[in-house]
Amino acid sequence: MAAPQRIKKINELVKRELGRIILKEVGFPKTILVTLTSVQTSKDLRECKVFVSVIPEEKTEEVLRNLSEEIYHLQQILNQRLKMRPVPKIEFVRDRELAKAQRVDEILSQLQNHKK
User: Fold this and answer.
1) Dihedral, 95, 96, 101, 102 alpha carbons, nearest 10
2) How confident is the model over 87-112, as pLDDT tens digits?
3) H/E element holding 14?
4) Domain housing 46
5) Of the candidates 11, 58, 65, 85, which lies 20 to 30 Å from 29 by C-alpha distance?
6) How far apart are CA 10 and CA 13, in angstroms?
7) What span, in angstroms and rounded, lies between the C-alpha atoms of 21 and 24?
8) Which CATH number is 56's domain given?
9) How many domains does the chain have?
10) 71 burial class (0-12, 13-18, 19+ CB within 10 angstroms)?
11) 58: which DSSP letter?
12) pTM, rounded to two decimals
């Protein structure tokens, strides 16, 4: 098992490198903004969840499908770039926190407009 500090560094490293790889290797339309919000690596360093936020939100499923189709290729590049063993196996996951925050903002705006 890896120490928490090491896992934190690995999370940042995977996020940074995978972000660069996706920017070069996966072609998303300019109207779609894809952000890797966080990475959670397992304690045994064998796998990691990569949380993805997409704007506009209705394109999230399409983006996750595209990333899943490219996952083998992305994993190969990540394996070559990272000088560690094992390199965690990546899994892309929808980040629901941004959507929750946006919903709270909408509700607060509605309440504020209702008071006027």
Assistant:
1) 90
2) 899 999 999 876 666 666 677 777 77
3) helix 4-25
4) 4-115
5) 11
6) 5
7) 5
8) 3.30.300.20
9) 1
10) middle
11) G
12) 0.80
